[in-house]
Target: Aminotransferase
Amino acid sequence: MRSWVDSSSQYCKMSNIDQLRNRIDEITLQMLRLFKDRTDIARQIGELKKSSGLGVTDEAREEQLRVRVTQMCKDIGLDESLGKKFLNFLLNESVKIQSEGKQTHLTVFLKAKALEQQGRKIIHMEVGEPDFMPPAAAKTGFDEAFDGGIVRYGPAAGMPRLRAALAEYAIRNFGANATAENILVSPGGRFAVYLAVNTLLNPGDEIIIIEPAWPAYRECAINAGIKVRTIQTRLEDKWEPSITQIEQAINSNTKMIVMNYPNNPTGKILAPAIQDRIVEIARKNDLYVLSDEIYSLYAYRDWKSVLANNYEKTIVTQSFSKSHAMTGFRIGYTVADKSIIDRMVKLQALCITNVAEPIQYAALKALNSDLVQYKKSMKSKLDTVSEEARRIGLEFLEPDGAMYVFARAGAGIFDGLDFTNRLLERGVAVAPGEGFGNYRGFIRISVAQDENKLKEGMKILDEVLKGYR
Ligand code: PLP
Model:
């Protein structure tokens, strides 16, 4: 039988728990009030930044706060990594608020499509979509898939035949050391990036992105509660990232660095020595390297895949969209260590079951098509636009590859967004630089168009630009 002493001490404990719970509740509510204040201030800062032409992220300012948070964690005895994760959550919320209404190549594309619906003619130089047809083998692949009954559910990682063929392709073209187990077939390179970020990183972790960059890396990370650390590169430095800056951005929460060469939007290909150095830094700090190599076919100087570095924490994302002009098929793939692929497959199975089998079969048939003409044609388009851009006085670095010219259209208060809107009214769509980072004075011109249209588009661009000078 329990004595009254037992039950009274039990009563005391319960009352203590209740008191402590009440305190926790109060602290939580107080934190929410402070969070609301913080959010309001972040919004005000965002408005001021917008009206002064400043970009959203300010790495130096964030670093100042990070140093203070680190010191405070030491002073009050809070785990430093936890403190920084909490800070990352707060910083991300500010970035989200301040990025509202930001325009990217996709917003311009949608506006251009809406104008076309009204019967307007638009020259599309905003999206990176090759204007050539996919290889004929993709078409016969469809018929064969239908006749052969390849029209059912399949394994989440992809058709075994396609995975095996992609592994061989990666060995031959990228110097990979791969088998079918190292391949995941996904609906486009975009989803491969999403899977990698969402399975390998956790909220509060940090990811390093070298800007200017394709916006989806940042958006994927922010959506998953991951803090983006930006390495800003400059036209004046030939878009080369500073190794010191990368090293300084790494801390115990840093988990991944993203590379994308040939680069969207600059067309830059890093010298192999710099690329190797970055992979070495990642290896030393145990970081994942996410290398998006979707433009590898369109490389017009020495290019090597990060797969050739043989670093086990490398994830290479690839696609049929650009190399095989198969954007509408929505098919891409990842090459990585089996343990990484297995994790990504689980999320893919959850989200989409598998990529449509007829699409996979068509891709299998198209994989080894002769792509020489695509490569030559893209080079000719790049040369045409570069020549026109030089003629009209744009500042840019001659692209080493990909399908874009990223040019400074104006300096100082020049507003690339206003410019792209005015240009769209004249029937030409280009992408504003601000979609790729803090590059307000820049525009990205996609060269994936018929050459006559490119010339006409550049002529109109020149006329609109003259209105600013
Ligand atoms: N990665 C980069 C750098 C891109 O520019 C794009 C599309 O423009 C993609 C990935 C997405 O390609 P996909 O069509 O395979 O999803």
Observations:
- The chain has a mean pLDDT of 93.
